[in-house]
Amino acid sequence: MRRTLLPIAALYAAACMTANAQVLYSTGFEEFNLGAILNQFGWEHELSSSGGRGDGSIVDSLARSGSKSLKITPVAGTTTGSNWWWKFIPHDTDASPNKIIRIKWDMYLTASSLQGIYGIDVYNGAGALARVCTVRVLDDNTVQLIRFAGGATQEVFTTEVEASRDAWNRFRLDIDYTTRTFKVYLNGVDVAPTETNQIQTAAGNVFGDADIYFVNLGGDSNDSGNYDNYYVAAIRAVVEGDVNGDGCVDDADLLAVLFSFGSDDIANDVNDDGVVDDADLLAVLFSFGNGC
Q: What is the spatial distance between Cα 103 and Cα 70, in angstroms, rounded to a whole number?
């Protein structure tokens, strides 16, 4: 992925100094027109220059919520090709008390004879372009992480967790810019509970974007991937039951769950199982007062 980054100075003015969580971007793609996502609401893309590409289009044939989603469809090429779609939403964790970036999304991958790789690829927002970390589902359905040993050496870690094909899966990625580590959850399950996943030090402290990421394996992948309920927020702390990310489990969190009860609202789905229900309500009640 290549793009122009903002200088650090331009980001300080935009940094919110409140302790409340900041929703940097949230969409279920309902406001988009059908067709290519490129140039709609500031979305950009970079497609493989020589390998297999992907078409990123808004469709109304499949959605987890509402009627629309972003569909990535392989476009044939002669070799493996990597492709990205993103919206630049910078957040300076140095200038804000909210030093954790939370990314949530729903993803539906079809089963096929030649499956590709789909996920989220995170990049910085200032200075030389650098990858922060990556979460992706491989062609064999296992969840794989790209992390940085010692904050410097890129390494690939394949988990023992698999995502289901022909079904919606809910992902959560929490990036802590204080500890320089990240955690990943699939349908509420920590995919690497005993691992310490480090982000790249060279990426700095400014988050830039969480890219929709597709690798067309061999240039002839013939599956597809739909993304829905794409949500990015800067939060103060990771506290069980803290829905709004302000670091305190209180009345606001309880009301958020109650007002979303019975829905699949990704922001208020505490346990990330795909529905706001009794389990989420109990998670808030049992943690009430924590972090306050």
A: 16
Cα–Cα dist 189/39, whole Å: 35
Residue (of 21, 82, 67) closest to 216 by Cα position: 82
Query: Helices (H), strands (E): how many in the chain?
Result: 3, 18
Contacts of residue 189, defined as CB under 8 A and 6 or more positions apart, other chains included, come to 161
Q: What is the CATH number of the domain that holds 19?
A: 2.60.120.200
**Tokens 């939403």 map to which residue?**
89
Judge if pTM exceeds 0.85.
yes
Together in a domain, 85 and 21? yes
Which string of b and e fits 108-146 if b means at least 16 CB within 10 Å? bbbeeeebbbbbbbbbbbbbebbbbbbbbbbbeeebbbb
What residue ranges in 43-90 does DSSP mark as E strands?
43-46, 53-59, 69-75, 81-87
**Predicted pLDDT of residue 3:** 56
* CB-based contacts of 142, cutoff 8 Å, min separation 6: 158, 159, 160, 161, 162, 163
Instruction: Give me the pLDDT at residue 19, please.
Output: 54
| Residue at which a domain ends, from 238, 263, 282 | 238
Tokens (6 digits) for 225? 């991937």
CB 50 within 8 A of CB 81: yes
* Alpha-carbon span 1 to 215, nearest angstrom: 13
Full residue range of the structural domain in which residue 193 is found: 8-238
Do residues 216 and 261 share a domain?
no
Which pLDDT does position 9 carry in this prediction?
41
Q: Extract the residue ranges of the chain whose pLDDT is less than 70.
A: 1-19
Which run of H or E residues covers position 8?
A: helix 8-12
